[in-house]
Amino acid sequence: MKPELGVLFVHGIGEQPQADTLLRFATPMIKWLRDWLEQPGADGVNTGVNTARGQLRIEHSILAPPLLQDAQPAHVLISMDCPATGPSKWLLAESWWASEFRRPPFRQIAGWLLTVGTWVILSHAGKRVRLAASVWGKTRAATGYLSSIPLAALLQVLVALLALLAVLPIAPLRKWLSGVLLTLTGTLGDSYVLLSSPIERAAAVHHVRCDLQWLARQCRQVVVVAHSQGAAIAHEALQTTEPANVPLLLTLGSGIGKLEELRILQYQQAIPSAQIIAGQQRAGGRRPKRMLWATPWALPLFIVAVLVMIQQIPVAVARGYLDPLAEWTAGLSLAVFFWVIKGTLAGWGPYLHRLARLSLRSVRPDLLWLDCYSRSDPVPNGPLSEESKPVESLPLELLAAWCLSSRMSDSVQIPGMYSVEVVNQRSVLSDHSAYWDNRDQFVSLVALQVAVHAGTGLLVPNDLPRLARVPGERGFRVMALVLARLAALMGTLLALYGVRHQLVSWGQAALDSLAKSPPLDSLSTLIGDVANGIVELASLFAVPVAAAPDVAAHALLGIVLLVIPFWGWHGLVTSNLWRWWDRYHVRHVLNPLQPEPVFPPLLVYLAGLTPLVAGIALMLWPNPLLALQRLGAIASTAFGLLMLLMFVMGYVNKLRDWWKRRNTSSVSS
Question: How far is CA 346 from the centre of its chain?
Answer without folding.
Answer: 25
